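Work Package 4 report. The design task specified in the project plan requires that, given a folded chain encoded as structure tokens, an amino acid be chosen for each position. We show below one input record used in the internal validation round.
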């Protein structure tokens, strides 16, 4: 008999956590999307000549939040030219931690 507020137990004795699995997968997907957007911004900066280009503006808007977090984490000690690398590194570390967490929590 399941207690109130706790998930029911599966046959093997493991608690079924479908919502946690979906949440972890969604977070991993969002972090991966941020990584690809940063790589796209890195590549596009060599080809886009007009800074008012709509595609370029979309990449700037989409990658600004991870860049802001990187600036806060580094305390402004990393030059602006290298903030993309710091952003990619912490996103990669966050995805690895998230994947390990999912593997240890989910049956």
């Amino acid at each position: 008999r399941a207690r109130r507020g706790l998930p029911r137990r599966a046959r093997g004795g493991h608690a079924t956590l479908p919502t946690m699995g979906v949440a972890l997968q969604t977070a991993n997907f969002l972090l991966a999307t941020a990584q690809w957007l940063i790589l796209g911004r890195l590549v596009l900066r060599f080809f886009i000549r007009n800074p008012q280009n709509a595609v370029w503006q979309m990449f700037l808007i989409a990658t600004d939040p991870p860049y802001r977090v990187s600036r806060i984490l580094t305390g402004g000690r990393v030059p602006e030219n290298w903030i993309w690398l710091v952003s990619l590194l912490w996103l990669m570390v966050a995805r690895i931690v998230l994947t390990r967490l999912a593997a240890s929590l989910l049956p």
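The chain has a mean pLDDT of 86. Validation will be extended to a larger panel in the next phase.
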